[in-house]
Design goal:
Low-confidence stretches: 1-27, 80-90
Mean pLDDT: 90
Number of domains: 1
Protein name: Pectate lyase
Number of helices: 7
InterPro entries: AmbAllergen, Pec_lyase, Pec_lyase_N, Pectin_lyas_fold, Pectin_lyase_fold/virulence, PEL
Pathway: Glycan metabolism; pectin degradation; 2-dehydro-3-deoxy-D-gluconate from pectin: step 2/5
Pfam families: Pec_lyase_N, Pectate_lyase_4
CATH superfamily: Single-stranded right-handed beta-helix, Pectin lyase-like
Shape: globular
Structural class: alpha/beta
Radius of gyration: 21 Å
Helix content: 10-25%
Strand order of the largest sheet: 1-2-5-8-13-16-20-24-27-30
Largest sheet: 10 strands, parallel
Cofactor: Ca(2+)
């Protein structure tokens, strides 16, 4: 297996961001009680990985993403019409977005699991997880020993070095006694079982890269108090309190979170912080939570300008209040999601994040005071110069998106700009959001 190599883009705009990224001498340890040589090395590797993942012209990524959606939608419609004509039993495969279309219609998904590594789109498209590594099967749902995890447990697989593709022998509920630390080059693949991470610690990807988290139920996550914990076969150290996020990305790069069902965690459902970048969150179903997603945790951490995230094909459902997402500093492509519920607002931000909202469906709540989708954490004279744009979104029940006046500094020629699939198509693109029921030998 070749070692991952990092290289610096030559763009001047990237160098400006990189300089800001490395300038701060202060290091936020986020759970690490002893920031020793091991963690210092992981931090340095994470910084290099973030530089390699960062795209100076992110509109090339949004353009490519939209083109893939159009292609998948056209091909899917042709296939569906052809199969109807042939009157095949069981009906056609209904994978209608480019991520699902890449793998879901194949009967051999269970014997060719690593095909999934080809399927990421958006800013997390480089995530291949455990591709090329061994298949590791979780047979033991317990988490009794976080210092010396038992082989067969999820924790044992998550901390190993090198690529590993983690699967599950059966449906299970895993109550983590502490946060689960996931190392680089891992896939956690819940397909073929109903796996719940619940009633205990959440999942943390810290100073790690190239991770896929797929097909899990994550709910009722609680804070954990920390203590001695192993994060690799050769290192353990003290951890401080974890807040109770369902999934936390801290200094993480090239991460793809797909087909996760999430609800009711003590803190956030998904937090992406501390210069994490190259992230795609797709095909997820979120319900029953207050602070759903936080992208950038501090107004005083401009290094988060490196953050680039795609949020696509998700269903924001019942019982959600706010932060879908709440953004700072970076670049966020929010595309083809179904926002059917919010109580306060859907998308918010501060510190001049770029938010490109394309082809989403927004259904406002009955409350007249909550019709506005967006919340700007700044005076109007400030946020009016930010880049918050809406294109081909569908607004229902009085929903209002307040755009800003900042110009989109794209380098793509106008003739090459690909419009998104419109919001009227979202119910088709998101109808299989959340965890799937997959059976070997049949399309998923």
């Amino acid at each position: 297996m070749e070692t991952l190599q990092w290289s610096l883009p030559s763009s001047f705009s990237f160098l400006v961001v990189a300089a800001a990224f490395l300038a701060s001498a202060a290091v936020s340890s986020a759970g690490i009680a002893d920031f020793d040589e091991h963690w210092q090395k992981r931090k340095e590797l994470a910084e290099a990985s973030a530089m390699a993942s960062y795209k100076p012209d992110p509109y090339n990524v949004t353009n490519t993403f939209n083109a893939a959606v159009h292609m998948a939608s056209t091909d899917g419609l042709r296939r569906e019409m052809g199969e109807r004509k042939k009157k095949r039993s069981g009906g056609p495969c209904r994978a209608t977005n480019p991520i699902d279309k890449c793998w879901r219609c194949r009967r051999d998904w269970a014997t060719d699991r690593q095909r999934l590594a080809r399927c990421a789109r958006g800013f997390g498209r480089r995530a291949t997880g455990g591709l090329g590594g061994k298949i590791y099967v979780v047979t033991d749902p317990t988490d009794a020993d976080v210092v010396n995890p038992r082989p067969g447990t999820l924790r044992w697989g998550a901390i190993q070095t090198g690529p590993l593709w983690i699967t599950f022998a059966r449906s299970m509920i895993i109550q983590l006694t502490q946060e689960l630390l996931v190392s680089s080059d891992k896939t956690i693949d819940g397909r073929g079982a109903q796996v719940h991470i619940a009633n205990g610690g959440g999942i943390t990807v810290q100073f790690a890269h190239n991770v896929i988290i797929h097909g899990l139920h994550v709910h009722d996550v609680k804070h954990t108090m920390g203590g001695m914990m192993r994060d690799s076969p050769t290192h353990m150290g003290p951890r401080t309190k974890a807040d109770g996020d369902g999934i936390s990305l801290f200094g993480a790069t090239d991460v793809w979170i797909d087909h996760i069902s999430m609800s009711n965690c003590e803190d956030g459902l998904i937090d992406v912080v501390q210069s994490s970048t190259g992230v795609t969150i797709s095909n997820c179903h979120f319900t029953n939570h207050n602070d759903v997603m936080l992208f950038g945790a501090s107004d005083s951490y401009p290094q988060d300008q490196v953050m680039q995230i795609t949020v696509a094909f998700n269903h924001f459902g019942r019982g959600l209040v706010q932060r879908m997402p709440r953004c700072r500093w970076g670049f966020f492509h929010v595309v083809n999601n179904d926002y059917t519920h919010w109580l306060m607002y859907a998308i918010g931000g501060s510190n001049a994040p770029t938010i490109i909202s394309q082809g989403n469906r927004y259904i406002a709540p009955p409350n007249m005071a909550a019709k506005v989708i967006t919340k700007h954490y700044a005076d109007e004279g400030v946020w009016r110069n930010w880049v918050w744009h809406t294109e081909d979104d569908l607004f229902m029940n009085g929903a209002v998106f307040q755009p800003s006046g900042g110009a989109i500094p794209r380098k793509i020629k106008k003739s090459e700009w690909v419009k998104p699939k419109p919001g009227s198509y979202v119910t088709r693109l998101t109808r299989n959001s959340g965890t799937l029921s997959c059976s070997p030998g049949r399309p998923c």
